[in-house]
């Protein structure tokens, strides 16, 4: 789901995995977003490099527990975001993460 408000786009892919990402890439014009909610809590079964390049977000946010029993976010996914220059925030480290959209601009803040 891609939501655009006041000119700012946020993309949510839920637990979509690589096959679903490949299907979404059939309409790349619908993927580009300012903010990306990281797929499947940062699982390596999601968040493929080509998909992230198509989304091309300025910032990404994952939701996962501290010491997640599934290891989310997976190290290779965190590294992929870093390699692509996408700033990554997560609930495990930052606590609650908020995105405020106002006057065509967005801002992110967190609190624990």
Protein model, in words:
By secondary structure, the protein is an alpha/beta fold. The protein has one domain. It contains four helices and seven strands; from the N terminus they run ββαβαβαβαββ. The protein has a five-stranded mixed sheet with strand order 1-2-3-4-5. The longest helix has 9 residues, at 75-83. The chain is globular and about 40 Å long. The chain starts with a strand and ends with a strand.
The whole-number mean of residue pLDDT values reads 97
Report the radius of gyration as a whole number of Å: 13 Å
Q: Give the overall silhouette.
A: globular
Q: Which series of helices and strands comes N to C?
A: EEHEHEHEHEE
Low-confidence stretches: none
* Span of the ends, CA to CA: 27 Å
Sheet with the most strands: spatial strand order: 1-2-3-4-5
Beta-strand portion reads 25-35%
Q: Please describe the biggest sheet, giving its number of strands, its sense, and whether it closes into a barrel.
A: 5 strands, mixed
Count every beta strand, where a strand is a DSSP E run of 2 or more residues: 7
Could you say how many structural domains there are in total? 1
Compute the number of helices: 4
Class based on secondary structure composition and strand pairing:
alpha/beta
Q: Which percent bin holds the helix content?
A: 10-25%
Short description:
The protein is an alpha/beta fold. It contains 4 helices and 7 strands.
Key terms for this structure?
112 residues; alpha/beta; 5-stranded mixed β-sheet; two-stranded antiparallel ribbon; 4 helices; 24% helix
């Amino acid at each position: 789901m891609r939501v655009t408000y006041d000119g700012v786009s946020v993309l949510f892919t839920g637990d979509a995995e690589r096959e679903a990402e490949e299907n979404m890439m059939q309409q790349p014009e619908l993927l580009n977003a300012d903010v990306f909610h990281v797929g499947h809590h940062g699982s390596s079964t999601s968040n493929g490099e080509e998909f992230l390049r198509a989304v091309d977000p300025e910032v990404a946010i994952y939701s996962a527990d501290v010491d997640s029993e599934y290891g989310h976010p997976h190290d290779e996914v965190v590294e992929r975001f870093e390699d692509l220059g996408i700033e990554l925030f997560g609930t495990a480290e930052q606590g609650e993460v908020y995105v405020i959209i106002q006057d065509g601009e967005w801002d992110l803040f967190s609190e624990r």
